[in-house]
Amino acid sequence: MTADLAARVHQALLARGETVGCAESLTGGALADLLSGTPGASATFAGGIVSYATRVKRDVLGVTAAQVVSADCASQMAAGAKRLLGVDWALATTGVAGPEKQDDKPVGTVYVGVAGPRGVQVLRLTLDGDRAAIRAGACRSALEALLDELG
Amino acid sequence: MTADLAARVHQALLARGETVGCAESLTGGALADLLSGTPGASATFAGGIVSYATRVKRDVLGVTAAQVVSADCASQMAAGAKRLLGVDWALATTGVAGPEKQDDKPVGTVYVGVAGPRGVQVLRLTLDGDRAAIRAGACRSALEALLDELG
């Protein structure tokens, strides 16, 4: 089902002649994997940064937010990826997949950033389930958020 | 099975106090997804660059190789990721997942780069199967190559 969402994102971007990239923390590459999974993806997907370590968020994406699990961090990751990758749209994910809480935020706390032509918006989610379910839910929410923007 | 390989990589790196990152083209984020999938992965996995577009390989990773599907490109991607991510080991994947051939190389042609303390080595593979099987096979080969290095 998430692969279908990625295919719909690809088709919507293709119709608009636009491109997408991503910056991932808790999803760890799974979102890029989905965006690149559709045959012909190279026409719309430029690439992504998996900024798992805090120093990669800072040094590669230019994140200055004090807390990794925060709306500010998701916003700066999305904006940084859009700039670095030279894309029209960038999706960012940060949050707590577990098993341990982080920055005093409970497992399942997720922020999704969407950077586009009109700026950056951030969604805050609370997801249930284990580590794999939370990562998958974050990917699905990011793709749905972009589809909403693409109309 | 590939998740087990990733868990073994994590354990081997943990025992040595070393870190890993990656640079991916045809695997599109799937290798980072595996490396970050093990609980506690943040102790050994710093992050990755999904350089799907040629300009991302060039601008973010510093690749100058004329052909994307080549040993030179895999080598430069691995070295670029090691430098950019500040890790002890970096894995790189480039090749043709299909459905179309690329750079006159047939579907299934894959190069895996491994950058480590003693330099960079490149493996050339010819993988069978469809797009998903070739991407999965490239991930597995990259993890096995690193496990070989880690002894």
What do you see in this structure?
Chain A has one domain (2-150): Alpha-Beta Complex (Maf protein), CATH 3.90.950. A five-stranded mixed sheet of chain A has the order 2-1-3-4-5, sandwiched between helices. Helix content of chain A is 42%, strand content 23%. In chain A, a hairpin with a 2-residue loop joins β4 (109-116) and β5 (119-126). Chain A is built from five helices and five strands. Chain A has helices at residues 2-16, 30-35, 54-61, 71-85, 131-150; strands at 20-24, 45-51, 89-95, 109-116, 119-126. The two termini of chain A are 19 Å apart. By secondary structure, chain A is α/β, with parallel strands linked by helices. Chains A and B meet through α2, β2 and α3 of A and α2, β2 and α3 of B.
CATH class wording of chain A = Alpha Beta
What does the main sheet of chain A amount to?
A: 5 strands, mixed
CATH superfamily of chain A: CinA-like
Strand content of chain A: 15-25%
Largest interface: A-B, 36 and 36 residues
Put simply, the count of helices of chain A is: 5
| Overall morphology of chain A | globular
User: What does the average pLDDT of chain A come to?
Assistant: 96
Number of domains of chain A: 1
> How far is the N terminus from the C terminus of chain A?
19 Å
CATH architecture label of chain A:
Alpha-Beta Complex
Assembly state: homodimer
CATH topology-level fold name of chain A: Maf protein
Strand numbers in spatial order across the main sheet of chain A: 2-1-3-4-5
Helix content of chain A: 40-55%
Overall structural class of chain A, as computed from helix and strand content, comes to alpha/beta
